[in-house]
Amino acid sequence: MEFKNIETTAIRTQIERSQYLEHSAPLYLTSSYVFEDAEDMRASFSEEKERNIYSRFSNPNTSEFVDKIAAMEGAETGYAFATGMSAIFSTLAALLNSGDHVISGRSVFGSTHTLFTKYFPKWNISHSYFSVTEVDKIESLIKPETKILFAETPTNPGLDILDLEKLGVIAKKHNLILIIDNCFATPYLQNPIKFGADLVIHSATKLIDGQGRVLGGVTVGRANLIREIYLFSRNTGPALSPFNAWILSKSLETLAVRLDRHCENALKVAEFLEKEPRVERVKYPFLKSHPDYEIARKQMKQGGNVVSFIIKGGIEAGRSFIDAIKLCSLSANLGDTRSIVTHPASTTHSKLSEEERLETGIYPGLVRVSVGLEHVDDIIGDLKQALNS
Ligand SMILES: *Cc1c(COP(=O)(O)O)cnc(C)c1O
C-alpha cells in the first residue's frame, strides 16, 4: 500500500501479520527458513519465487526496514547493512570495476575518505575531489572512466550545502551514477532521488535510530543497481541483523516528530550562538547567514540537528570549551536524544594535515553540536556557561 504522507508511510509500512494477529511487528530472530519440498527449494534458489532463504540474503525485519526507507525516499527498492560504512563500501565495491574513476565531494565522512584514498587504489579505482565552492568545476574532472558521482549534503562537520539539482543534471548529462549520503538530513528532511540521485545511502546509526543504541545502514534507489549491490552483499555478508532492523524500523515511526523537535532546538541554538561575543561564526543550513541558505531551503524541509560554530581563540579555545561542558555529552556519535559536542580538529579529524582540514572547512576553533531533545533552555544554558568559563 502506498501512502500520501511520509509520517504515515513510516508508521504503516509493515510486514504481513503472523497467525497471532499481533499489532506491532514481531522480531524474527531466525538465520534460515524452511521449504515445503524439493521443488519449492529448487524454485526458491533459482529465484523463481521471491521468498526468504537465509538471513544473509533477506529477513522479514530487514525487509520491513528497507521497504520503509525506500518508500520514504521515493526509491524502487534497497538493501540493509550492518553499518553505514558497510552500506557505502558495498555499494561502491559492487558497482565499480578496476580502472574506474569516482568524483566525490571533498567533505565526506572520514572513513569514506579512507576508502577513496587507501583501499580503492589497491583495486586500481581512482578518485577526484571537488569542494563545495567548485560544483561548477565537476564537469572538468570527468574522465572517460568516470562512473560514479558521490556526495554528502549537508557536509560533516562543515555543514556546507551542495546543490542536489545541479549534481543531478551533471550526472544525467554524463551518464554517471549519482550517489548521495543522506545521513545528516534523513528521509524526512531531504529526498535526493527527487533531484536525480540514482542511489541514496544512510547511516541508520544516527538520526534514524535516534537514541544511540544500534548500528545500521541502508542503500535505496534504482532496482537495476540495487540488484548488483544485493548480489555482492548476499555473497560478501554485510547484512543488517534482524534485531537492529526491528529497532530501526520502530525508530522510523517517530522520526518525523523527533526531527521536528531536533530542528526547532537546533535553530534556536544557532540563533543563540550568533549573538554570542566569543563566537566568530555560526553555520546552520536554515540560518539566513548561511552562504547556501537558498539552496538549503530549496532541497531541505528543515535545517537538521547539527550546528557548527567557530570559537574565537583556535584549538586551545576549542579544547577549553569542551572541558567546560557539563550537560552535553562528549561523544563521537551524533543524532542522539542527548546533545553531543565535539571538537573535530583535535579528535575525529586530527589525523588530517592542517591544510586538509582547512580544505574541508575544519577550522581550529570549530565546534560541532548535535542538538538533542533535552529542553532547549538547558542546552543553551550549558553552551552559554561553557563559552563564559
Ligand atoms: C556516521 C556516518 C557514516 C558511517 O556510518 P556508521 O553507521 O558509523 O558506519 C557515514 N556517513 C555519514 C555522513 C555519517 O555521519
TrEMBL record:
Its cofactor is pyridoxal 5'-phosphate. GO terms for biological process: 'de novo' L-methionine biosynthetic process; homocysteine biosynthetic process; transsulfuration. Pathway: Amino-acid biosynthesis; L-methionine biosynthesis via de novo pathway; L-homocysteine from O-succinyl-L-homoserine: step 1/1. One of its GO terms (cellular component) is cytoplasm. It holds the Pfam family Cys_Met_Meta_PP. The modification N6-(pyridoxal phosphate)lysine is found at K206. It is an enzyme of class 2 (transferase). Keywords: Amino-acid biosynthesis, Methionine biosynthesis, Pyridoxal phosphate, Transferase. It comes from the Bacteria. InterPro entries: Cys/Met-Metab_PyrdxlP-dep_enz (IPR000277), O-succ-hSer_sulfhydrylase (IPR006234), PyrdxlP-dep_Trfase (IPR015424), PyrdxlP-dep_Trfase_major (IPR015421), PyrdxlP-dep_Trfase_small (IPR015422). GO terms for molecular function: carbon-sulfur lyase activity; pyridoxal phosphate binding; transferase activity, transferring alkyl or aryl (other than methyl) groups. Homotetramer. Belongs to the trans-sulfuration enzymes family. MetZ subfamily. Catalyzes the formation of L-homocysteine from O-succinyl-L-homoserine (OSHS) and hydrogen sulfide. This is O-succinylhomoserine sulfhydrylase. It comes from Gillisia limnaea (strain DSM 15749 / LMG 21470 / R-8282). The gene is metZ.
